[in-house]
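Hello forum,

I keep getting stuck at the same step: I have a sequence, I want structure tokens, and every attempt I make locally crashes halfway through. Rather than fight my setup again tonight, could one of you with a working pipeline run this one for me? It's a single chain of 247 residues.
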Amino acid sequence: LADLRTGWSEFVSRRWMVITVVCLSLFFLSFEAFLAVIAPVQMKEALGGASDMAVMMAGWGTGGLLGMILAIRLRPSRPMLAAWAVMPAHAVWMLGVAVPLGVPLLFVLAVVSGACIDLTFTFWGTVLQTHVPGDVVSRVGSFDALGVALLGPVGLLVAGPLTDSFGASSTGVMAAALAGQSRARLAFSASFTRDIVSSDNVLVTPSRWFMRVSMSIVRICPHSTTESLPPGPSSLAGTSTCCEYPL
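Reply #2:
Ran it on my machine without issues. Output:
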């Protein structure tokens, strides 16, 4: 209990972290609904079904690999701003599925989305490691992971009824709007995204890099013909998760 109290106190004392986690939670509310419900239904009803869904999700996994290669090389001076500025790309992909665009273009948008999400969480993980004291970073990180994952199941719960009531296309547009709005507000409205600067004291270790690349490889392989596989540590076990936590 003492560890929980310490972790919570350290977490809420950092306004920039609380705001970020709230925005991430809202993002994953819509993104999980998109990946697990809206996109599969839309691909089945408006495009080529499971085969087209598999092609698109293979693009997402490929983008994840490219994103990790870029993350190893990039050292942005303002990692928070860089992390969130690229994330509206997800809303573009979600909107493309809702329209829907053709499969080749959706593949390209999925590649961009996959690269962007891995860039974001690499930079976010770097900020946590360099701006939170080492003796409490794991406890603070646990509240970060909990907060990010908190609304994902809610998105899954409401996605089905909304899709049945309004159709996959309209529900996809609503999900894209929520995802884009939460990320754009965080990227361009919160002053701390510009104020937090990078540190030269953090290294990307080979084991950390290998783990994230391994998860990206898992994402390339379609988990099934009807259900996409979201990113995250539980991907290695073949199960779904409602967020990707920075390793």
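The chain has one domain: 2-237. If your local run keeps crashing, start a new thread with the error log.
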